[in-house]
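can u do me a favor
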């Protein structure tokens, strides 16, 4: 395994595929900042690595652009639920 296959982004380790997806979304958004598919994809990737606030910001932009984007309402609800649910903690056992 490549020791550099995972990179640390804002305290979170992400794999190379995830990093590439984020880069592709950002490249697409540089060409067209209002691309709803790129924004939705970026939101999904960000939510998947725990950046729920950033994901919600992308979701809100899509919502303001496309009235009935497929799956957006359900996805927003899931992200909001994850934001309200505390992350599980690990208890060290002696």
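np, heres the sequence
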């Amino acid at each position: 395994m490549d020791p550099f296959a995972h990179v640390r982004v804002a305290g979170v380790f992400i794999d190379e595929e995830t990093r590439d997806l984020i880069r592709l979304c950002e490249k697409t958004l540089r060409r067209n900042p209002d691309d709803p598919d790129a924004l939705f994809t970026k939101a999904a990737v960000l939510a998947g690595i725990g950046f729920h606030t950033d994901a919600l910001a992308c979701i809100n932009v899509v919502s303001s652009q496309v009235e009935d984007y497929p799956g957006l309402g359900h996805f927003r609800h899931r992200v909001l639920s994850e934001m309200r649910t505390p992350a599980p903690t690990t208890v060290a056992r002696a």
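The CA atoms of residues 40 and 54 lie 11 Å apart. hope that helps!!
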